[in-house]
Amino acid sequence: WKQPELEQAASEFLWGKYLSNDPLKMYVAFRIWNSYLLAREPRDRNAACDRFMDKMSRLTGVFQNETMSFDRETGKPKQFQAGSLYFKGAPSEDTRLDLWFPDNRRTEECVSAYASLYPLITYYLNRLNDWGLCFRQCKVCGKYFLAKSQRYELCSDKCRKTQALQNKREFDERARENNYDLLYKNECQNWRNKINRVKNTAGFPADRLEKIQASFSDFKKEALQRKKAVKTGTASPKEFTDWLYQQSNVIVELTEI
To answer: What is the pTM of this model?
Structure first.
């Protein structure tokens, strides 16, 4: 009880959860801190501490097991099991759940739990199954969200815009890569065509042909290094394509008769 540093750390942690704007986190943070303050009032601090820990463990116990789990393949929530060991051994207060409808048309429903969040969460996991909703994880921000089917991969307009921008960047990158890769392949074919032409030229010096073939091997080695530099970002595609255009002049000079 006389540990101000720990109390300050706990206060900051709970305050952060309260500021998250997540209703569940806000409620649990408020309940924990309020119960802690009440537990400090009695003279018998040890007994008050035990009561506080007992109440909080019952409140947050749902987060210590797989109650909120779902099928990773289908996204379907785990079905509520009334015969689970938790409900068989838990006090009635921990499993109490009240349900009512504010209007006769039953367009809205209200549910309340008391000592534990367990019955509230398991109830709505069942309702999610009734509504045909499934859990999905956003491929952009990583948050979990509810969707009507598994084909949904993005949770919000913000993430959809982010993904669209990323798709455009990847498309542009592939287009640039395809362009300089195509130029490289064309230049290789240009060298091969000229080498084959001099091979078929009667009286072409063998030592010059050998020199041309060695130059072609050097060209390919350097081209692969330059392509790698473009992919790693240490060189630009324009630098690579400019170099390729220069190599066209090299093979022309080497094969000139």
So the answer is: 0.52
